[in-house]
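Protocol step 6 of 9: fold each sequence in the batch and record its structure tokens directly after the sequence line. For illustration, a two-sequence batch is reproduced in full.

Sequence one:
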Amino acid sequence: MLTIGAFARASRLSPKALRLYDELELLRPARVDPHSGYRYYAVEQLERARLVAWLRRLGMPLAGIREVCALGPADAARAIRAHWSQVEAETAQRRDLAAFLVDHLLDESRKDITMLELRHRAHSDRGRVRPANQDTAYAGTRLLAVADGFGPAGAPASGAAVRALRVLDREELPAGDVLNLLQDAVRGATEAVREATEGTDANGTTLTALLWTGSRLALVHIGDSRVYLLRDGALFRITHDHTVVQSLIDEGRLTPEEATAHPQRSLLLKALGTAAPDLRLQDAEPGDRYLLCSDGLPAVLPDARIRRLLAAGTPDETVRALVDAANEAGGPDNVSCVVADVVRTDA
């Protein structure tokens, strides 16, 4: 048995914290001296105590720690991942508000104001193999979106998701609250998809969208559609695929080259309504070109080919060139593209 002082040093929890966790029944001592009230702990309790200490360092509230400690390892890992996703979303929202306040306070000192706007085009194609097009692509005043439906009602699912987000094109965006607004719209899209598919698990959709604020883009992403950024001639992928193959790449069990021929390369880990989407802000610069596309494009075109096609032509010419190239490469899947240029207008 370890005294409370020795246990505190080993677990990196203070004696005061250990007494609190005892009172909350989160980490009870193995034995309490009936005369002195002194607490003693078993060596076997160190693992749980260290887990509590780590979770506190993550900023997890005590109620959440109690839930995690009651779970098995796999469920506990999922709960921690969900907590951290929420922390990142909240941090991004505060960063959005802080940036707005800085811009607002500096606004009066600006003599020359550079305005940015988007010029864009969307195009969707059935491809050469699939009997129907289950993709939906949209480019509006503020909203750019691609959704890739799956299952017998895949087309209604993707269409319902994008239609639900299109309300953002008709509303004034509240300053400093863009990610919250986008998150609310995604909840509406999730409900719309459930209604369109009558809640059947065999149907669903991915969703990848950018919401233009006038100087930055708010990103929502879940699934395996992608967003690429072409900046100064270099191509960057700014989304992360939520697929089995991508998880194997992340774990070092598969190379990107091996992934292209993997039999499960289209198997999703997340889709709209099954998990929290990725939400964050993307800074925009004049000259940027963004590409949103369903997985039918990168499945047949390597990044080098996408970069070359993306670097030429107007948005209208480029979306058609990308779709044509995918079809020339066999067109095994539906393919949808949205291309948007960030251009400068001086006011």
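Sequence two, same batch, same settings:
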Amino acid sequence: MTDKLTVSVLGTGIMGAAMARNLLRAGHTVRAWNRTRAKAEPLAADGAHVAGTPAEAVEGADVVLTMLHDGAAALDVMREAAPALRSGAAWVQSTTAGIEAIDDLTAFAREHGLVFFDAPVLGTRQPAEAGQLLVLAAGPSEHRAAVIPVFDAVGARTVWTGEDGAAGSATRLKLVANSWVIAATAAAGEVLALAQALGVDPQSFFDAIGGGPLDMGYLRAKSALILDDRLSPAQFAVGTAAKDARLIVQAGERNGLRLDVAAASAERLERAAAQGHADEDMAAAYFASFDPADRPSA
């Protein structure tokens, strides 16, 4: 197979649009679709064919890449695309879909003769735009040549977790990683909220932990978004993080675990979304510590 592919990108939000641009830069043909067409239209200036329907987007595609809100959305869109899907095409499923959705997604792939790759990514807006995502992937070795050029275009590194995408090993690793990201972000927001309530200058906290084992670049990065009022455009939106947190809680429950931090983080993110912060960076969960009427000036 040639290294230059026709790739259908279904879902051109923060991550999907960045991935589509990097595929174009790598010389691939990109056919893009998004439910809200206005989010896909800017890709035309980069050379993408912006399709009006999922079926139009997947016409002639060697690889179909889905980057949608959740597993249900991915399945619905693929059903819309079904009449034009080519048997034998690779389906790179990069949506953070959760474990329970994997069976339905892989059943669809089998029904339509698609080679299924479970391939969520780690990273936010900036690494996505730079083509520096970490791709977590599972799928058959004999078909990987069809998708490696895609992974090379969007990511700095690919970690293969298994031979069978249906086993969901990549999705499982993504949920473990996101559980840490979400917990760390929630903790950063609470630290700043508590500092404000107690009249403590946040910088004095950073000075106290600076250079020691409690210091962390991620803490400083997320705190800076809050303190400098740079929550838009989002690196990883509150609404998406809330969905992922719920998937993590469900995965724990499915395996007999009670994940108290993940559950509390989901509630904080959902509360922040209800206060109007759904499209801001997930660091905006900070505001969930306050009554909306007393919204602070970070």
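Proceed to step 7 once all outputs are recorded. Observation for sequence two: The first strand starts at residue 6 and ends at 10.
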